[in-house]
Write a structure and sequence with these properties.
It is a single chain. The chain is mostly helical. It has six helices and two strands; from the N terminus they run αβααβααα. The protein has a single domain, classed as Up-down Bundle (Four Helix Bundle (Hemerythrin (Met), subunit A)), CATH 1.20.120.1630. Helix 1 packs antiparallel against helix 4, helix 4 runs antiparallel to helix 5 and helix 5 crosses helix 6. It is elongated, with a radius of gyration of 18 Å. Bound molecules: S-adenosyl-L-homocysteine (SAH).
């Protein structure tokens, strides 16, 4: 097997593992009644589509067809090793965030009935560890796919979702949890412990 084929398969295995890992949580979360869905709007859906394009569709097209060929460059073994390690770290963090958030998790922005503010586990380190995990995934994609367009599409796509969403998510949480969320914000950073 060529190094390139190995790297593409490693990327695909990472994506499929994430998808399968999420299924049971998605099934459980859907059963919880939603109390506030005002933020689950066309804007949030558009951001989710942009993210899916960058983390899923564009790299999948590249992996299957090699398009856009002009943007490809030679792959190094070191890059592939780093990519596999970063994807593994992303999946581990996804697992932890889903376990900690439990039924408070949702794909779109919403507040559930009996929504509980989670500040323990990985949520004690940063306020948005699931978004940290998505950035790690996007970084792994950039390392595993030796194509400037397909490689960077994840960082651009998820970065767009993150930067246009995180402020609104925090405003929504402050509205729902008041001083409790203010205090949580005062002692944690967004996605990188101690930094940002
Ligand atoms: N931004 C978080 C969660 C992403 S899932 C992260 O990156 O880990 C998005 C949903 O999670 C939102 O609809 C919000 O209701 C919920 N949420 C976000 N932070 C939360 C927290 N600390 N406790 C409970 N629910 C939270």
């Amino acid at each position: 097997m060529s190094l390139l084929l190995f790297a593409k398969i490693a990327w695909a295995v990472g994506v499929v593992t994430w998808f399968v890992m999420r299924l049971p949580f998605q099934r459980k979360a859907r059963r919880k009644a939603v109390a506030d869905a005002r933020h689950r709007n066309a804007r949030d859906m558009t951001l989710l589509s942009i993210s899916t394009l960058g983390l899923g569709i564009i790299p999948a097209i590249y992996a299957l067809t090699g398009w856009p060929a002009g943007a490809s460059y030679p792959l190094s073994a070191l890059q592939v090793i780093a990519g596999v390690a970063v994807f593994a770290a992303a999946l581990w963090l996804f697992w932890r965030t889903h376990r900690d958030l439990g039924q408070n998790w949702s794909v779109t922005l919403e507040i559930k009935d009996a929504h509980k503010l989670i500040t323990n586990g990985v949520y004690a380190k940063v306020r948005h560890p699931m978004y940290s995990a998505f950035f790690l995934w996007a970084l792994a994609q950039a390392l595993l796919l030796p194509n400037v367009v397909a490689g960077l599409a994840g960082l651009v796509g998820f970065g767009t979702l993150f930067f246009f969403r995180v402020g609104r998510e925090e405003a929504m949480m402050r509205e729902a949890f008041g001083a409790e969320y203010d205090a949580y914000m005062a002692r944690t950073k967004r996605i990188i412990p101690g930094l940002y």
